[in-house]
Sequence to fold (134 residues):
Amino acid sequence: MDELLNLIKESKNIAIVGISNDPEKPSYRVAEYLKNNGFRIIPINPKYDTVLGERCYKSLTEVEENIDIIDVFRRSEDIPEIVEEALKKRPKIFWMQLGIENSEAKKMLEQNGIYVVQNLCLKIFHSSNREKLL
Fold:
């Protein structure tokens, strides 16, 4: 847990894979929370040009800047494809939101030195550990 908290403290840029531009969707609300708490969000969804006032990229590989955390809002079966792109970006953390797990992807990412979180909401984790993250 301390390692995860330290990695989040060191992080600035969070790619939100599968973000929606619908304010009622969890991916939008999580991204909005992260943006309001000092993170730079990088929306990833081929459907949109912008989300929350930020340029929206079609894929992780289009992003030129460094990505510290990849936060995924896609089905578990879509994870391997995202992992391929993630390995090229070398984030500190690959985060799979509530209900998303993939043990093969987890193993591959960890073998490449990337911290993996599964089946947990980044917003909930951040807000419940806020004092430790300041």
Summary: The longest strand covers residues 13-17.
